[in-house]
Request: fold
Amino acid sequence: QVQLVESGGGLVQPGGSLTLSCVASGTFTAINTAAWYRQTPGKEREWVAGISNGGMPNYLDSVEGRFTMSRDDVKHTVYLQMVSLKPEDTAVYYCNADIWANHRLKDYWGQGTQVTVSS
Reply:
């Protein structure tokens, strides 16, 4: 069974920084595409950043220049480095990945990690 586990969330002051990690575990061949989403109460889950296998990351306009997504395929981990955080970045952040396992590509979600930006 493949699992995605996020970590790195927390409370930070406006202007601060956090780096989220998402580790894939279990029996699988490789991570194909990966993405970070976020969600606040009462709102739909929002795509924040995405990266393909060997491609360049893409970002939501409101985080462009402040967030950096990367991946380490040896460690089966994707990251979201967040700087210059704003109160409106407060949300539960979810990792999403399409993963090759048993010759099939399947979509997985992590459990989410809370990011709170507040003074």
Remarks:
- The mean pLDDT is 96.
- The longest strand covers residues 91-101.
- The CA atoms of residues 32 and 53 lie 5 Å apart.
- The radius of gyration is 14 Å.
